[in-house]
Write a structure and sequence with these properties.
single chain, 85% helix, 185 residues, mainly alpha
Length: 185
């Protein structure tokens, strides 16, 4: 049951602040709290589900979704322009761009890019993204192994601290976006 809770936390965390949660979870895997292959698998599946949801939302109701949310509307034109001018570059890089991971698949869904093309490229790029972050977190755990021995039982607090920082950043971003919408900027 405890293991299920950890991976459920990874699922929720990846939706809120993917990079930080994957790094922290991979670090936790190095410390023996989780399985690195399950961390990568969960990260890939949750990220793909999110991206594909927003892509199909864009296909079905993109315009109305954007028109109802001024914060999205402010950035939609820039993303649309980029989709139109550099579709391949965007498809291969958006997973690595922080701050546009919801709007970009939505805008791609509204574009002329074929569904199968998006799904295939999204699958490969998400797999690369999650794998790179997981290797980085795991490698960080390896580097910190000697340091953590000195701290003993504090390693769980380090992991929780990293996750807390990621969630705090996600909440602050959400609050900033919400305030921008209320001000009508």
């Amino acid at each position: 049951m405890q293991a299920f809770a950890l991976y459920l936390g990874v699922m929720i965390g990846v939706l809120l602040e993917g990079d930080t949660v994957i790094l922290a979870s991979s670090f936790a895997a190095h410390q023996g709290y989780m399985n690195i292959f399950l961390v990568v698998t969960v990260a890939i599946l949750v990220t793909l589900s999110s991206d594909w949801f927003y892509f199909f939302l864009g296909r079905l109701k993109g315009r109305s979704v954007i028109e109802k949310r001024p914060s999205l509307m402010r950035h939609a034109g820039k993303i649309k322009d980029y989709v139109d001018r550099h579709p391949n570059l965007l498809l291969f890089s958006y997973r690595f761009l922080y701050g546009f991971r919801i709007l970009t698949p939505l805008m791609i869904g509204m574009s002329k890019i074929s569904t199968i093309r998006f799904l295939i490229i999204s699958f490969f790029m998400t797999t690369i993204w999650a794998s790179l972050l997981s290797v980085a977190g795991y490698f960080f755990g390896h580097i910190m192994k000697g340091q953590i021995k000195e701290f003993g039982h504090y390693e769980l607090f380090v992991i929780l601290g990293i996750i807390l920082i990621g969630i705090t950043l996600a909440v602050l971003t959400w609050i900033r976006e919400r305030n921008t919408v209320k001000q009508g900027v």
